[in-house]
Write a structure and sequence with these properties.
The protein has 305 residues and is α/β, with parallel strands linked by helices. The chain has helices spanning 10-17, 25-28, 47-58, 82-88, 92-95, 121-134, 143-153, 199-203, 242-251, 278-294; strands spanning 3-5, 22-24, 36-41, 65-71, 89-91, 100-105, 135-141, 158-172, 186-196, 208-214, 218-224, 229-232. It is found in: Cytoplasm.
């Protein structure tokens, strides 16, 4: 089944060129189907890129999804046109009166800041608390994952000596979980971060379960509340060229930038990236939608609690 997306969202044309089936709201309203409602709190600076990356993965499910985008009232993005934000995004204040089957909270380029110093920290905390009673299952990504673990469980983050940047092999620690159905024993995940959370801090909370990690990049996926929350330190949603664009952007402004590891063919930035995470990324999001959203959410969405 296709995704239901807002009319004229830029991702629609991009994904149609990739032969991914999406439909706009006008056509979707003609179908008698109760779609799953997914809200995305997009904190990344390049909103359109992140929208497209996430929608691309969400499109790989046989279920119909109704996607909407949330923005913060306490923060004005600098890298996305105001017109785009006004057309496709709604404030938390407006959406807080609704319930959703699933939610995705992205990362943000503020990971070296103390949480309390983030200008929108108070609003983020309100959203985190709201999600626990208004969303069936929430996926927290990168900074969003660390912020969620800190807010709910007091898990600190630690600065890394150098940026965790590249493609790292992860090992599934709970392979029988539905989220890993169809997975191999190991899989790769893009990482791009300056901080980390540590196993010993998470293990101090029995309600948290580390379900995937890497000997190089550390904890990668934490599950809580039986799958109502997933905290993911990396970026399975990344497009093939995302790390390349980030590397070249930073290399042009600083002289201390290292190239992403395990990424380019022959470890040579002059050659194309080797995409090794796409299949598992699609499977992960498909499993999340199927087993942790569709199979558990009530038919009457107002019954979510």
């Amino acid at each position: 089944m296709p995704l239901r997306l807002p009319d004229r969202l830029p991702a629609i044309d991009i994904l149609k060129r990739e032969n991914i089936f999406v439909m706009d709201e006008t056509r979707a309203h003609s179908q008698e189907i109760r779609p799953l409602r997914i809200v995305i709190l997009n904190l990344m600076p390049l909103k359109i890129t992140t929208e497209t990356d996430l929608v691309r993965l969400l499109s790989n499910t046989p279920l119909q999804l109704d996607i909407c985008f949330m923005k913060l009232k306490s923060h004005t993005p600098k890298n996305t046109p105001v017109e785009h934000m006004m057309m496709f995004y709604k404030d938390f204040n407006e959406l807080s009166k609704q319930k959703f089957d699933g939610m995705i909270i992205t990362g943000a380029p503020i990971e070296t800041m103390d949480y309390e110093d983030v200008e929108y920290w108070s609003e983020i905390q309100d959203i985190f608390n709201w999600a626990r009673t208004h969303v069936t299952s929430t996926m927290y990504l990168c900074w969003g994952a660390m912020a969620g673990l800190y807010h709910f469980y007091g898990i600190p983050k630690y600065p890394l000596k150098k940026k965790m940047f590249g493609i790292y092999r992860q090992h599934t620690l709970a392979p029988t979980l539905p989220i890993f159905r169809g997975f191999d024993d190991s899989f790769t995940m893009p990482q791009s971060r300056h901080t980390e959370v540590r196993r010993e801090d998470i293990e101090a909370h029995p309600e948290l379960e580390i379900i995937a990690e890497s000997p190089e990049s550390g904890v990668s996926i934490v599950m809580a509340r039986g799958g109502r929350e997933f905290f993911i330190t990396g970026h399975l949603e990344y497009a093939p060229d995302t790390l390349d664009r980030e590397y070249r952007r930073d290399r042009d402004t600083r002289d201390d930038v290292e190239q992403p590891v395990n990424y380019y063919k022959n470890d040579n930035p002059a050659e194309a990236p080797m995409v090794s995470w796409r299949a598992h990324a699609n499977l992960f999001y498909n499993n999340w939608i199927n087993y942790y959203v569709y199979q558990t959410t009530p038919y009457n969405i107002e019954d979510i609690k």
